[in-house]
Amino acid sequence: METTKTAAKRSLFRSDAMQTLLAFAGLIVLFIVFSLASPNFFQFSNIVGILLATAVNGVLALGVTFIIITAGIDLSVGTVMTLSAVMAGVFITFWGLPVPIGVLAGLGTGALAGLINGVVIAKMRIPPFVATLGMLYIAKGLSLVISGLKPIYFNDTPVYTEIAMGSVLGSIIPGFDIPNAVLILFGAAILAHFILTKTILGRYTFALGSNEEATRLSGVNTDFWKIAVYTLGGLFAGLGGVLIASRLNSAQPALGAGYELDAIAAVVIGGTSLSGGEGTILGTIIGAFVISVLTNGLRILSVPQEWQIVVTGGIVIMAVYLDMLRRRRV
Q1: Which string of DSSP letters, residue by residue, matches 275-312?
Q2: What are 163's strand-pairing partners?
Q3: Using one digit for the tens of pLDDT, what is the confidence trace for 101-146?
Q4: Which of 125, 126, 101, 77 shows the shortest CA–CA distance to 234?
Q5: In sequence order, what DSSP letters do the residues of 100-133 get, joined into one string?
Q6: Does residue 164 contact residue 179 with C-beta atoms inside 8 Å?
Q7: What is the per-residue pLDDT across 36-47, written as a single tens digit (0 to 9) for each?
Q8: How far is CA 303 from the centre of its chain?
Q9: Architecture of 40-328 per CATH?
Q10: How far is CA 147 from the centre of its chain?
């Protein structure tokens, strides 16, 4: 009986639910600490600012979650996001095409970059770190070349800005001006959760991360599903590009570097294991909010930006260490 209880405790400690709960508890602690430290933190306008700041990083992190669950990595999501924004700008501003076509161009650019990543990794057997690092530079260079080193503005199409900065809820409930970007984030999270938990793609995502060789020997086309996972990750990066261009009312070709680190940090803090095979979308969303709340709170307390980065890095290291601890206790 004692052995059964011990095994149950270990199973609970190792479970995704426990890791998500720990991340959520950390988020609540941050809210309490910053609320007590500054009366400005819990104001509605600041909460909306946190939600808006989380939108882009959260969307990027959704795609990265699938990739890390397969025991892979994607260092290119930040610059792929930028390239997607630039392509949306080219279609809408340079070529004068309708906004929906520009949005599809941004999404398609991200998906294409992810597809290329997947093919290079699955077919050419290049390690994900190296393959996506190469894509990082390719996307960065193409963004600068295509844009002519200049931002692309959407001044002639104000409806594009409404994609992220408009407020459907505000028009329904006066005073409740939650930006559309936040709704898009939660909608994308619901879709990602459904794909991960209810579809064959989600099932094989976990299988690839748990034991890719065993999955292949069981008759599964692992190359195809790995390519599908990276393509999905690129699609979410494309959505991030559409959102950030809408939020800034411009496609900034030099923007994007560093976003991949925040996305990976959100995934890790949310409990997804870098060893693969484990992870949840809810945990990733909580991890994205942890980063945004931490950054916002430290900024309100006038902590220098360089120290904000140091603190975030320390939290990521701690999250990885906790993941290692729980695996040792299995």
Answers
A1: TSS---HHHHHHHHHHHHHHHHHHHHTT--HHHHHHHH
A2: none
A3: 999 999 999 999 999 999 999 999 999 999 999 999 999 999 999 9
A4: 77
A5: HHHHHHHHHHHHHHHHHHHHHHHTS---HHHHHH
A6: yes
A7: 998 889 898 899
A8: 25
A9: Orthogonal Bundle (1.10)
A10: 25
